[in-house]
Amino acid sequence: MIIRSSEFIISAVKQEQYPLGEEREIVFVGRSNVGKSSLINKLLGRRKLAHISSNPGKTQTINFYHINESFYFVDLPGYGYAKVAKELRNTWGPMIEEYFIKRPNLALVLMLVDIRHAPTKLDVAMAEWLQHIDRPFLVVATKADKISHGAQAKQASLIRKELGIHASSLILTSSETGYGMEGLWERMEQAMEVTGNPDQVD
Ligand SMILES: Nc1nc2c(ncn2[C@@H]2O[C@H](COP(=O)(O)OP(=O)(O)OP(=O)(O)O)[C@@H](O)[C@H]2O)c(=O)[nH]1
Ligand SMILES: [Mg+2]
After folding, report:
1. pLDDT, tens digit, for every residue of 71-123?
2. How remote is the CA of residue 63 from the centroid of ligand 2, in Å?
3. Residue 83's domain spans which residues?
4. Residue 15 sits in a domain of what CATH number?
5. Ligand 1 centroid vs 32 CA: distance in angstroms?
6. Which end of the chain is more exposed for a tag (fewer CB within 10 A), N or C?
7. Which residues contact 63 (CB under 8 A, 6 or more apart)?
């Protein structure tokens, strides 16, 4: 994918604020600090488009980024961070649920997990729920640069087993080195073709 343009559009907290139109969307979901915003920046070759922080809970709204004026990346707030204000935890569920259930534009969910850790209960629940609501999703293991090749293989098989997914549904990446970005773009392009987008020029 050649990125000609990438632009932040809106931070939404409810459906009425989502961009209008039928362009396809790739959504990034996962626990706080797993690397959602970093992955978005790496895929787009931008250093600071999505805000990154070593403090979990940085992204607190549904952020839409318009790519090549033809599709969107959607960065969701992370789940499972205890110190995030209670009010926010209470709104997270309904806000995210509304997006997943009511958004016809959704072409693919990228569910991120940190390759160094076994999936949490919340990760398992999220994967089960995505299967239940029948949304296409891929699991992206992040921060592969932090462990050896041998450890990557071992963790990959643990993640697949815990989340109950096929090997083809897991992609290993590093936003530090760029590892896995090409393969991930291929999968995103496929997903957007399958769901159809007559305006897509690439
Ligand atoms: N080494 C390494 N560090 C990473 C990688 N991806 C993210 N990080 C670091 O992990 C921390 C969290 O990254 P973010 O991209 O802000 O994570 P997030 O999932 O958007 O977090 P929230 O917005 O809080 O939900 C930052 O310190 C990043 O620099 C990676 O592939 N490798
Ligand atoms: Mg973020």
Report:
1. 999 998 887 665 555 655 666 778 888 899 889 999 999 999 999 999 998 89
2. 9
3. 10-194
4. 3.40.50.300
5. 9
6. C
7. 8, 10, 11, 12, 50, 74, 75, 76
